[in-house]
Amino acid sequence: MQNNLITILGPTAVGKTFLGALLANHFGGEIISADSRQVYKGMDIGTGKDLSDYIIDGKTVPYHLIDVIEPEDEFNLFLFNKQFYQVFNEITLRKKIPFLVGGTGLYLHSILKSYKLNKVESDNKRSSELDNLTIEQLTSILKNLSPSLHNTTDMLIKDRVIRAIIIAESRTKDDVEKEKINSLIIGVKLEREEIKKKITLRLKHRLENGMIDEVKRLIDEGISFERLDLFGLEYKFLGKYLKRELTYNDMFQKLNSAIHSFAKRQMTWFRKMEREGIKINWIDGPDYEAAKQIISQNYFS
Length: 301
Fold this sequence. Notes:
The structure is a single chain. The chain is of the alpha/beta class. Among the domains are: about 120-170; about 190-260, Helix Hairpins, CATH 1.10.287. Helices cover about 50% and strands about 10% of the residues. It is built from twelve helices and eight strands. The strands form two sheets. It has a six-stranded parallel β-sheet with strand order 5-2-6-1-7-8, with helices on both faces. Strands 3-4 form a two-stranded antiparallel ribbon. A hairpin with a 2-residue loop joins strand 3 (about 55) and strand 4. Helix 7 crosses helix 11 (about 250-275) and helix 10 (about 235-240) runs antiparallel to helix 11. The chain is globular.
């Protein structure tokens, strides 16, 4: 089967985004982000959106699945798959090459292994999760799942809204024609110590350039500290710092260590994928020429 997707993956801080933008610009492609937090609006610095990376030679390379949902709303694997296949089909119809770029292992794996998600795996578990949310939050989730929703009467009854969400989520794949994915995969890797050094420098830069203010703004807009904990990493530890549970130095050290561990877990995901038979063409760092050669030799054959 001919390739119909190019995937650029790797741990955090290795330069995937800019490399993906360079390659998409060269080969006439568009980027689909595989990042579980960059989907949220207003969460820019902490999630590392770095939107300037998409500007190549003065023009913006088209990107998707970034800034698609409010921070108070839920995003999950079902929604990612639904939106991925919608965008994938649209890019393909435009005769462009879709580039899947990111580091969220589960999201990448779900596409590369063609997960079947046409049924919510545990209604009871999902019901319990949803029951912890307010009626306003539930309504927002349901409207995102079903934008054309017009019956607002049932939206006042919490149990009915929860049931409607579960039903809508169970249909996320039925609504989209799903094409079999056959992806050429390029992995960007660096020596562990080099990644750790890049993570630490990047964290210092982000803290000095607005990341704390970003988290303060989220709190001012009504995002709870509990919600920040669920976003993890930067948002979790900055939340603790702003609650004065951690000093600045303790926050920095704990967060820096947590991001190092996260990068290690990402590599564990990718190694697991290789053991399953997924072929990853590894390159040392974001080497544009090496990646371009891999694509030229393998994607179009």
